[in-house]
Amino acid sequence: MNLVVKEIQAKSILSVSKVYPYVINPYIGCQHGCSYCYARFMKRVTGHKEPWGEFVDVKINAASLLEREIQKKKRGRVWVSGVCDPYQPLEATYTVTRQCLEILAHQNWPVIIQTRSPLVLRDLDIIKDAEDFEVGLSVTTADDGIRRLFEPHAPPINDRIEALDELHKAGIRTYAMIAPVLPRAEGLADLLKGKIDYVLIDRMNYHYADWVYRKYGLEDALTDDFFYLTTQKLASL
Ligand code: SF4
Fold first, then answer.
1. Structural domains counted in the chain
2. Is 94 helix (H, G, I), strand (E, B) or coil?
3. Cβ distance 25 to 84 under 8 Å?
4. Angle 10-12-15 (CA atoms, 0-180°, nearest 5)?
5. Span 28-40, average pLDDT
6. For ligand 1, what atom is nearest to the CA of residue 53?
7. Which of 39, 79, 88, 109 has its CA 20 to 30 A from that of 29?
8. Are the beta carbons of 24 and 79 closer than 8 angstroms?
9. Range of the domain at 158
10. Nearest protein CA to atom 7 of ligand 1, as residue
11. What pLDDT shows up at residue 236?
């Protein structure tokens, strides 16, 4: 896959969010490039012409912006991240997410991390010592073959489950984000048992990946019945 990486100077970093009080997106764009990703609207917002998943702007001044902005804003939970994966592969080199977490932890701000990547384990030292950090891994199916159809560039499901296990054993509050619920998600009930404190579940709300369902004859998994039955099975979590 082609990837166009640009280092940019962002104008701000600690943004107001509708989901949690604040959100930090250290990157514009996401290398994981999931077929159903709702965040592709960022292409329009930022004027990117490359396909979703093939561009990433790195906010290299994120930490210095955050140092300043955090002094001026009222303390509130920060979501990391909303429209990119904060632990996409480039984070291993750029460490923009890590730098932001260091500041948030130092200032005792509560944080909710959401990722598809076990790279989050690299920052266990910060997360463990922080006063109020929790970590969620998005897991959408129990079948890695299905994962490869919808999220070919994101880490394998088992790696995410193992990351949750390690975080949970380290005493960190963890959650699984089963969203969107993909085919064979019901098997997650067994895989996640004992590894999370809570679960968030949501159905496929967008049509970007309809072509994947059609191509592989999985249209049944777009129905209300599928979502209802799968949610029932996951309710044991
Ligand atoms: S990891 Fe999240 S932000 Fe990145 S492409 Fe997938 S759904 Fe979108």
1. 1
2. helix
3. yes
4. 130
5. 97
6. 5
7. 109
8. yes
9. 4-234
10. 37
11. 74
Distance between Cα 198 and ligand 1 center (Å): 21
The two tokens of residue 50 are 């490359």
Please write the tens of the pLDDT for every residue from 177-199. 999 999 999 999 999 999 999 99
Q: What CATH number does residue 30 fall under?
A: 3.20.20
Measure 41 CA to ligand 1 centroid, in angstroms: 12
Burial string for 124-140 (b: 16+ CB within 10 Å, else e) reads eebbeebeebbbbbbbb
Type of residue at 234: L
Residue 214: its pLDDT value, please?
Answer: 97
Is the Cβ–Cβ distance between 185 and 162 less than 8 Å? no
The pocket around ligand 1, CB under 6 angstroms, is made up of: 30, 32-34, 37, 39, 84-85, 116, 154
Alpha helices (H) in the chain, listed in sequence order: 41-46, 62-72, 91-94, 96-106, 124-129, 144-150, 157-169, 188-192, 210-215, 224-234
